[in-house]
Structures are given as C-alpha cells and as structure tokens.
C-alpha cells in the first residue's frame, strides 16, 4: 500500500477529471463546452405527414414496388378499389410505396388483386398496424422479377372496327367552321361618316354581340321581382347583358324613381339636417358664422367665392346656370379608385360602368328622364338609318338613346344603347328620330376591359354571374393604371373590387370561365347536365348541316342557322383546355360520359359511345354529329365549367327508302352538303322527343 499523504493542502479532487481527455470535449480553443445542437423544427407539411403516419399506424398496409414507371396514386386507387384503400404514401422518384387499407378483409382483397394482375406492381412486404410480419409461404424469396418496360401510351395499334356495335363515320370530313361576321368594319369610318364623328377612337370597331341564345329564346328572360317598396308588380328582364325592371310606364312613375329630389322625402323626419345650397342634398355640415349648409369639398368649391363675400352679411349665395355647369360631372372614364355601377356586359371581359357618387347619379338619371320625355313625342324614322346615327330606340315600356352600328340587313338593325352599353338587333320599326339636343346629352356609360379575364362564349353559369352583378345598390371600386390602356381595342384595362366582400370580380369571372381538369378518379359527367337547344317545329325553317356522314341510314345533324356561329365561339374554350390546361397523358372515357377529344388537330367536346379494348373509344362529337374512333391519348376528362348548351340535333329524314345505294347516298350528300344552309319544308317532333325533317324534293332526287 502506498504511503498515505499527510499534507492534504495541495490535493485537488477535480484534477483527475480535468486531465482525463475523455471527459474534456471542447469545441474550440477558447474552451467552450459542446452543447447538443437543437433539432431542426419540422416543416408544416412534414408535421402533417407525421400526424398522418401516426393515424395510419394502426391500419394494415402493403409495401409495394412498381414494375412500370407510370403507376400513380390515382392508378393505385383504381387498382385496389376506393372502398378498400384508406391512404397511399408514395414518394417522388421512388419505386417503393405504401398502401394503407381499412381492415384485414381489404388487405386480403388486395392480395387477390395482385395475384390476378401482377403486371403493374409487386409485393415488397406487408405489415399489420405497425408490426412487421414475416412473408407468407406463398410469397417467394427469390430475386425480384425483371422490371418490365413502361407501357407507351402513345403507341397506337390498329382500330378494331369488327367488334364495334355502333356505326362510325367513314367520310373523314373536317368539322365545318362558321365565321363570325364583324358588326362594324373599317369602311364605316371612312371620310366624315356619322360613325367616324361619333366614335373618333374607333371603339366600336371591335364590338361583339354575345347574346344570340337569348335572342333565340334559349333562356328565360323575365322573372318576377319582389320589391317591398313598390306597390305595383315589377318584372325583372334580362336583356342582352343588361338587367332592367318593368313595372309602370307613365312619366310620373319614372320621374318619381329617377328625379333629383323625391317629393316623398319631405315626409321623412330630417330634423337636424338642411338642404345643401348647391345640390339640394341633405347635410349636417354648415358654416359656423352664416349657417350656410354644404355637402362636401366639391359643393364648397362652387360657392366658396360667393360665400366669402356674403358670409355674415345676411345675403344668400346665388347658384346660376354657370355655377350649376360646374356641378355636372364630366363624361368619360371615371377617376381611379372611385365607386362605379355596372350598366351592362358586352362580352365576358368587357363591361360598361358609370360613376356611382351622388352627383353623378343625379346627372345620369336626369339624362334618362330627358330621353324618356323626348321619346313620347318623336316620330318614326322615314328612311333606313345610317351607321353612326343617333336614334331613339323603343322596346316595351323602355325608351333609350341608341347608335346604329350595322344596317346590312334592312329588317334587322344592330344598335348599341349609349346610356347602358348593351348591343341589340331590332326591327327598324322600333327606331325613332332623335333631336340634336338629346343626342348631345352627356354619355356616362364607359366600357372597360377586365384585366386578366379571357374572352369566352357566355355559358349559363357565366350569364347568371354577370346579371347578378347589376343590382341597383351594387357598387364597385374601379382600379386601373393608365399604362395598361389597350390601344388595339381602345379601352382601359381595369379591376373592379366589390368592397363589401373585398373581392375582385375579375377573379370571380375568371374562376367561372377557366376550366379545371377533374381528377381521373372523379365520377365523369354525362350529357344530361347540358341544356339542349333545338330548332322549333314548323315549316320553312333555315338549318345548317353540321354532319352528313350517316345519310346512308337516313340520319343528318343540323343546327339552327342563327346559332351556327355559337358553335365556333365555344370551340375556342375547348381548344385552350386541350392544349394548355389538361395535363393527363391519356383518358379512356367510360361509356356515356362526356370528354374533350382531338379530331383533325382541333379539340371538341364529345360523349363516349363504345369501348372495345383497342385503345380507340368511339366518340360522338356533340356539336357536329360525327362518330369517330379516337385514341386515348387524344382524349381528356370533361371539366364541369363547360356548361355550353348543345345546339346540334339529330334528325331523321322522312320519306326515304330503307336501303340506299351508294349512288343515292352521293346524290343526298350533294343535296345536303356539309356546312350548307338548307330550308326544310317541315320539322316534326314526336312524343319521344325525336326530330324528323321533311324535304319534298329528296324523294324525287333519290328515286330518279
């Protein structure tokens, strides 16, 4: 034993630990001890994934391995059936993924599915509620089978026509295009024409008429309007992008609704308020010296000079005509960030607005009253009007100022209501002479182009939204920048903000217009969701032939001549969806469901008629009538935003033989050519809503 120390004064109990290098872990030379680094906090997405993993831990799952590269969550969901699968954990760029099932029965059903169809994926391992189990005896421990090459969806085989039970079109004709004739062209602005004078900026050179379906009677245009303040029945009428109310026609009612000072307001309790010395509006703001009432800075600027001279003298300010001219707002584009009201929609992205402040409301309604008074005594036009001429346009109980835009058809004149902005076609008998005094009154309705909103044909959903924005009390804040002026269309690009909900109506309209590609696992849409518009039964009706490929069977597809251009308008939306929005590589539309399909390079809507397993479903193109086998790579799912009505109808030709020879079919194709305008002798509709056409000369043509 070592000799015990007798002098303990130099003993340090920490020296052994200090010299022990295992206990001295320094990060730097300065001697700071290493502190365990704090763990990096999880991202919100990782936290959600961790919580989801905990929730799924008690459910049985399979760990699977892909055999082909294009296996997606949607494909797995459809492979095992949605009713069995709880969730899928699939990482990008990984062939291994997990599938959680609702119970053990669902797990065993998945095993059976894998055994029956082993081409897409294979079992990697299975687990029950977080506890890994050994592989069953029936699972081989041998090496994984060789990975199969990915299926190539663009590989196109032969079309199987023998297995099809529905006839397909054999003509291969392109779909006819129906061009929209411009309402106004450059020749209307030549020289010193009326239109060149009235529309110096050539704004109406790009004007459009988007309400053919309303004019044709496809929609209900009048509804009962409940107004507690009215003692007479009021009808709300939707007319060419403008909402108006029909209740009474005498001048007293009109003046009561739109006059500057309502006589009934005298009966209200206005104690504490006085009438403004300028505009006669009620206000509580007065001069503390002379007690002169005024509304705001605008009214004060009109009388400030007179007030400074007469204040305290007992004299009242004198508002003469020169002073009142300052009160009348200037027409044109309202200033930025001012409140406006919508008077009409011309297109999906073009809207007419007017100022909504009190003074502008007064001036605008005064113009309407003057036009109404003038319209009671004017006489009809004694000759056909010319483009750019200002006329009085009467329809029903309404009297408005209108500018003539097109007179190509003397029985169908195109006019624009300059106090609202709505474009209409009317009989010349509804047009009356307009004096220079009325034609020179201010025009407060100004068009603006809604920034970011695409131009599309008006769907029923979009139509409801547009008319819903034209309430009497609905005001919007107008926002724009002068550098965004559209020089091509001579309009200011702008944004309208509905302040009550702090939302842009531009984004609302874009949301209604822009289609969203549905998930492939979502149930598809059927033709029943779309409204159908057919030609009315009767005699001597003009139709345009959209498809004649089934003349051999006595069937032809036609659309009313007036609505043919609407088919071409809606194709713009289908083309944009197929080229830029839909991202799926392929889609096999189930039988009876709608889809968007490409034919001859153009995307159109159709309905799947038959699938025979060759990769070419038979697609009936709804807007034309031909049936064509289309490869699945040229088919996309149908978005619910496309609610355009179906304007093409299937007709059975009457008085034709049951069996037609090829020569007879060729005669019919020349008589009923694709895209031709024909006048049928009669349209007949039976009790099952099936339509038939009668052409008296066809039987002689076939039998000769």
Automatic annotation (TrEMBL):
Ranges where the Tudor domain occurs: 338-452, 539-653
> Do you know which Gene3D superfamilies this protein is assigned to?
2.30.30.140
Coiled-coil regions in this chain?
none
InterPro entries this protein is in? Tudor (IPR002999)
SUPFAM superfamilies hit by this protein: Tudor/PWWP/MBT
* Any Pfam family hit: TUDOR
Name assigned to this protein = Protein vreteno-like
Question: Whose protein is this, by species?
Answer: Drosophila madeirensis (Fruit fly)
